[in-house]
């Protein structure tokens, strides 16, 4: 069994530390007393460059890795750039995981996505639903890339005895999110849209889709806490709740709401009092996405930040940083 160093002595590489999830993991590690957190910007280390990643791993020799780097986006971005979404994510995963193995890194945590599950998977979605049906077409390339990441981890565990783990988060939001008007996910897109509607005194806000699909939303600080919790599980405990070919763990709140309910909550948070108009000609995506988080609860962790509370935190962060985000 692996003998781990004390927290203060562990060198931990957080790949993707400038992203919403990666930055939250860094914050969490700092709170817990980690003193040797290694980060690199894309200009300092391009994870698409296999040789650069290998040289970095050989030079730094991290004890553990959080693989949070990914190309992400909403329905529009996934539909518009499917080639980039599948290529960049697969290459980043393959380069990082293989270089970690070659450099002797025993423990790694890969962050996936709940979109790995079939479009019509039984709700709530259990880990066992993986590769049992057709994926949602609007983000299939991204989902396949994330499935590849899970299988990379499982394969290195089986063949080389590594301890590479995977967590599958539900829809995330929070500080550091992407508030681009076209390429962002639903929560930051709506927060920005409602904020602008308040500023412009717009009589109505147009929202993509029918408003009926159900989604689960989790604050990124909860996701970071869950990630560190899973990474810190003793190896025998982790293996007790997973299998060699079913090693991933769902991370979510266990609660969902309709997009209409989400929009109504964001309207309250931003102080918008106009009409909400839903454009049913736009794609809805998967009808429902709720994760079964019973495995994670059995491992001793559950979410603690409620949706409206988390949205208030996120909107406060947005207001503080909107000039940097080039939002009027």
From TrEMBL:
Domain NAD-dependent epimerase/dehydratase per the UniProt entry, residue ranges: 12-236
Family the UniProt entry places it in: Belongs to the NAD(P)-dependent epimerase/dehydratase family. Fucose synthase subfamily.
One Gene Ontology term from the biological process aspect of the record: 'de novo' GDP-L-fucose biosynthetic process
GO molecular function terms attached to this record: GDP-L-fucose synthase activity; isomerase activity; NADP+ binding
Catalytic activity: GDP-beta-L-fucose + NADP(+) = GDP-4-dehydro-alpha-D-rhamnose + NADPH + H(+)
Keyword terms: Isomerase, Multifunctional enzyme, NADP, Oxidoreductase
Keyword Mitochondrion recorded: no
Lineage: Bacteria, Pseudomonadati, Thermodesulfobacteriota, Desulfobacteria, Desulfobacterales
Residues engaged in binding NADP(+): 16-22, 111-114, 146, 169-172, 185
Name of the molecule in the record: GDP-L-fucose synthase
Listed EC numbers: 1.1.1.271
InterPro entries per record: Epimerase_deHydtase, GDP_fucose/colitose_synth, NAD(P)-bd_dom_sf
Superkingdom of the organism of origin: Bacteria
KW Isomerase (keyword) present: yes
Annotated pathway: Nucleotide-sugar biosynthesis; GDP-L-fucose biosynthesis via de novo pathway; GDP-L-fucose from GDP-alpha-D-mannose: step 2/2
Site features described as Important for catalytic activity, chain residue numbers: 113, 115
The gene coding this protein: fcl
Active-site annotation: 142 (proton donor/acceptor)
Pfam family, any one: Epimerase
Residues given in the record as substrate binding sites: 193, 208, 215, 284
Its job: Catalyzes the two-step NADP-dependent conversion of GDP-4-dehydro-6-deoxy-D-mannose to GDP-fucose, involving an epimerase and a reductase reaction.
